[in-house]
């Protein structure tokens, strides 16, 4: 019986031992098993230092190596299939239309209403008199009274009605995250920006949220708040808000970028079968100062998080990004929806739920440069998400995020492609540099004319206000006479021209 002897050997030293007969290759060797097993055996020889001395039959080793050679591609194929299935599953979890069989999607959204909550009054401390230090046990009495003074009297409890707003988002499968606001939802007048964070899990067609002083039971129509004793504190109704600038018509001097009929105003632009603009479009017009209106729809991507969830952006001049992201029911940060990307977060997170049409309005003023290419004024951005101002004339000192470096040259504005199917419609832009001012040329006043005609050396009349008022009256009377004369001669000029 053939055998292979594997001996311990330090790394770095070559062995004079030849390959065992069962692995000696010859010109007439056509066995595919040996062809596959040989390189594996050669790799196995490297492991000699960690193998105990012993005898392994050649046939057994051949069988072992051949099995590995056959099993390896099978395992790799299984892994590829598993990864492909997982990728396909992720693609199946991206929706540009409302899903029909997703109970979690039906529960996400916004809710608002009044609830009655207990309010604990500020505790009242007992008033105590300090005993006379000369009395017996005075020291002990003082300490005792001080301890009693620190103990508050029972707090008074009252009921108060408050308006609560609630935002819910799906974070994969049956899990949810929520933000609760006192005063109403973001953008409402009484809204208080500091939220209470909630978490929950769906069970069938309802959801239970926890994390606050009460439990919240959510169904597709609304939410019920219940305290720890089981008392119902109130119910919030589901609301579906709409941007006040949705469907805004372009002004007279606007350039219509996209209205669903074509992509002629884009260097790269693809239109879907249902007449929407896909992400990754580059605007053809390169404008320095402009007002831009565009409407966008975020896809529903419940299994994605962070920057992988419905990500796009308006890259102004390819340098400054106004972020688009599904950051609904999240706190505003410098890379969420409405942010000037990685530079300044939105003043308020006005992002609505996915698969709802939203609006982005941007007023941009480009930086100004000197002849020596030094910058003399930074870019400025004001923006509105769903009609609410989220950036107020922000001074932007440099390009943001991955934007191109600032230079005194124009570059195209882009709708960023982040491999998320964000959709756009009703896009138009106004070139503010082409707008004419009704106040130009500026007319001078009578006083300004008098100031400009004064001699360099003022006489004594300068200090006399009466002389100045007389001069003004005289100038006004002279001006009125000139106007009357011009009006009187105007018809004559018309007559003469008619005669000609």
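-> sequence recovered:
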């Amino acid at each position: 019986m053939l055998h292979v002897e594997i001996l311990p050997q330090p790394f770095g030293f070559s062995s004079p031992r030849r390959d065992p007969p069962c692995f000696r290759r010859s010109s007439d060797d056509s066995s595919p098993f040996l062809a596959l097993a040989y390189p594996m055996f050669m790799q196995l020889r490297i492991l000699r230092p960690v193998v105990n001395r012993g005898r392994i039959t050649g046939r057994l080793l051949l069988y072992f190596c051949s099995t590995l050679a056959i099993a390896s591609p099978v395992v790799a194929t299984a892994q590829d299939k598993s990864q492909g299935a997982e990728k396909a599953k992720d693609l199946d979890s991206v929706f540009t239309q409302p899903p029909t069989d997703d109970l979690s999607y039906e529960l996400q959204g916004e809710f608002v209403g009044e609830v009655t909550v207990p309010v604990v009054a500020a505790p009242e401390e007992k008033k105590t008199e300090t005993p006379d230090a000369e009395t017996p046990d005075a020291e002990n009495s003082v300490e005792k009274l001080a301890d009693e003074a620190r103990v508050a009297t029972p707090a008074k409890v009252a009921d108060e009605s408050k308006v609560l707003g609630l935002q819910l988002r799906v974070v994969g499968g049956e899990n949810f995250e929520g933000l609760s606001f006192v005063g109403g939802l973001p953008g409402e007048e009484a809204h208080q920006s500091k939220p209470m964070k909630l978490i929950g899990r769906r069970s069938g067609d309802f959801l239970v949220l926890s994390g606050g002083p009460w439990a919240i039971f959510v169904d597709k129509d609304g939410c019920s708040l219940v305290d720890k004793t089981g008392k119902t504190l109130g119910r919030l109704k589901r609301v579906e808000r709409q941007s006040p600038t949705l469907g805004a018509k372009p002004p007279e001097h606007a350039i219509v970028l996209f209205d669903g009929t074509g992509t002629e105003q884009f260097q790269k632009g693809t239109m879907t079968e249902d007449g929407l603009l896909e992400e990754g479009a580059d605007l053809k017009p390169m404008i320095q100062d402009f007002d831009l209106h565009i409407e966008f729809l975020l896809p529903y991507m419940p299994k994605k998080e962070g920057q992988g969830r419905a990500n796009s952006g308006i890259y102004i001049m390819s340098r400054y990004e106004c972020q688009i992201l599904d950051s609904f029911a999240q706190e505003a940060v410098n890379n969420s929806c409405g942010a000037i990307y990685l530079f300044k977060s939105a003043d308020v997170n006005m992002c609505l739920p996915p698969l709802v049409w939203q609006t982005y309005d941007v007023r941009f003023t480009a930086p100004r440069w000197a002849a020596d290419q030094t910058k003399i004024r930074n870019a400025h951005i004001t923006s509105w998400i769903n009609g609410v101002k989220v950036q107020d004339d922000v001074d932007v000192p440099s390009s943001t995020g991955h934007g191109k470096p600032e230079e005194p040259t124009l570059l195209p504005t882009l709708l960023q492609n982040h491999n998320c199917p964000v959709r756009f419609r009703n896009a138009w832009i106004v070139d503010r540099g082409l707008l004419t001012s009704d106040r130009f040329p500026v007319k001078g006043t009578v006083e300004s004319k008098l100031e400009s005609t004064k001699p360099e050396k003022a006489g004594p009349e300068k200090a006399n206000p009466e002389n100045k008022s007389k001069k003004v009256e005289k100038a006004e009377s002279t001006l009125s006479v000139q106007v009357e004369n011009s009006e009187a001669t105007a018809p004559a000029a018309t007559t003469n021209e008619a005669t000609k």
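Helices lie at 32-45, 58-92, 103-107, 138-150, 446-452, 465-499.
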